[in-house]
Amino acid sequence: MKHADHRKGYIRTITAVSIVGALGLLLSNYWLFLATSAAIAALISLSVGVVYGRAGMVALCPMAFAGIGGWTTGWLNLHTNLPFLADVVIGALAAVPVGIAMGLPALRLRGLNLAAATLAFGGAFAVVAFDRGFPGAAEHKPVERPIFASSETLYFFLAVLMLVVVSGLLNRAARTAIGASWMAVRDSERATAALGHSVVATKLLAFAVSAFIAGVGGALLAGQLGILSGNAFQPFTSMVIFTAAVAFGAAHLEGAILAGAATVFVPEILRLIELPQDIAPALFAVAALQALAGGEAGLAGALRAKWRPAPMAAAHPDRTYPVPSPALLAAVTRPRRVTDNSLRTPPLEVRDITVAYGRVVALDGVNLRVQSATVHGLIGPNGAGKSTLIDVISGFVSPTRGQIYLDGRVLFDVPPLSKDLPPHRRARKGIRRSFQQGRVSPSLTIDQYLRLSGARGSSDDRRLSDEILAALGCPAASTPIGTLDVGTRRLVGVATTLASRPSIVMLDEPAAGLATEESARLANVIRELPERFGCAVLLVEHDVKMIAVCCDEVTALDFGRVIAHGTPRSVLRNPKVLRAYLGGVDQPSRRPAAEVN
Ligand SMILES: Nc1ncnc2c1ncn2[C@@H]1O[C@H](COP(=O)(O)OP(=O)(O)OP(=O)(O)O)[C@@H](O)[C@H]1O
């Protein structure tokens, strides 16, 4: 299989090199000039592919970043003796701080609002910086090309080489946790943070990389045209590149090439057949809408799905799991300090947690302790405060009062000492959770998801996580998550959580939406987690059967207060719990915050 893949790869490479070589040698200077423009436009489309295609943020200012790259390269070429390629790299780097600054609105804005902000930024930059003229324009001093790329043919080869190098680096990045975090943040920011990644850093890095790539495009444009004009970097050009990138799917190299070629050759063809060139942007906009109707991957994504169908998950009808090896158990269980006292330290304890959403008191002085290597159930009717408690522990909601202890150490304390760690830092400390809506990123393979979780760093980590996948009956790591059924995705979520060696695993209604049979299988897995992997589990579930089967201890909440705690049997028979689930005339109404004390 691998051999066949290698052979296909060689054939593709030889074909591509032959086509580029033939174009370079056979085309006239005029068509070569256009082909070079297309390669540069493809590079700028790749930059859109990073920030939109991968990270899902609508940024309409790629030409502003390209303009900074072009301006800086022109200035360096005019005023220093640095080699051309150094000018290009420094020019692209100059776009990075502006890219990061442009990423700041993306931390708060999304969709149309972000599009409007970035478009306005591109417009302002064009007026303030580019319309005043590029270096060398006033003196009519063009940027000097390097000797190795002095002719149109050689410059075309240089532009194509840059495109291939940048695309290769992006493909490599896609296989790391950073690349996976871009895709994950597009699917769910909360889930990305819960896996230990800062959403702020992930988004800003996507903007920085995108600005760098567009900056390389602008720098190459400076070498191609010699003297740049502000016309090339207007917001309208940004929108044309963006729509073409969306239509063709510029997250992939082939999509970026098609987008680059379309933005250059479609207007040219329209001119040759004596139609107005201005039709081209409208055509791209229609194509982009068409592509968005079929998903966000564009034409290239759709063709990839057709020609390279994702491997389907191997079926695990009976899910009989191999017993984990002692080495696996030792590796997964967090090393604890070996004193008698620390052996009794509960992995998670919350005291007096109080949360109010305006006048609604969601949690009112909740105390809960999850003992080492146990499953602790958290039950209660709708609105009892279960998810809020998990949100508080994982850092998504700040309580007004209370303390959280992780492995006996203070994680959060209000008042008097306020220690508040953001969700991604809590995840790195060993608090891992799932979400009610099941946010295991469908854009990633299991392997990428494990990387995102920090569970594929070393070869030992890889062996461990593969063994955990097998132990839970999950498919192989290369399987795309998008091809898995809901139940298997949940198991992948649990496996990923375990592979990151957490102190505490919090599962928020893992059986929601599962068929009875799937739910029973999942219950078996959860019940065995402490024994098989030595971890502690906090399980929020409405499925009473699952609670009875899985849990060592249960805490029941109602109206944000603990109404019962003990063994599953005692809690599930407790009259207060029965009343809370069945409702009744003696149910207290939810009291406003002002009345709590
Ligand atoms: N963001 C919010 N703003 C205002 N009120 C909220 C918010 N989130 C939750 N609440 C309220 O807090 C209370 C507790 O909600 P929570 O989602 O924690 O309950 P739950 O026990 O998890 O319910 P379910 O079983 O339906 O998921 C509810 O009254 C809910 O309406």
TrEMBL record:
Gene3D superfamilies hit by this protein: P-loop containing nucleotide triphosphate hydrolases
SUPFAM superfamilies for the chain: P-loop containing nucleoside triphosphate hydrolases
Domain ABC transporter, chain residue ranges per copy: 348-584
Residue stretches spanning the membrane: 9-27, 33-52, 59-78, 84-107, 114-134, 154-174, 204-227, 239-266
CDD domains: TM_PBP1_LivM_like (cd06581)
Subcellular localization, as worded in the UniProt entry: Cell membrane
Membrane topology, from the record: Multi-pass membrane protein
Swiss-Prot/TrEMBL keywords: ATP-binding, Cell membrane, Membrane, Nucleotide-binding, Transmembrane, Transmembrane helix, Transport
Keyword Transmembrane helix: yes
Family annotation (PANTHER family): CONSERVED COMPONENT OF ABC TRANSPORTER FOR NATURAL AMINO ACIDS-RELATED
Protein name: ABC transporter domain-containing protein
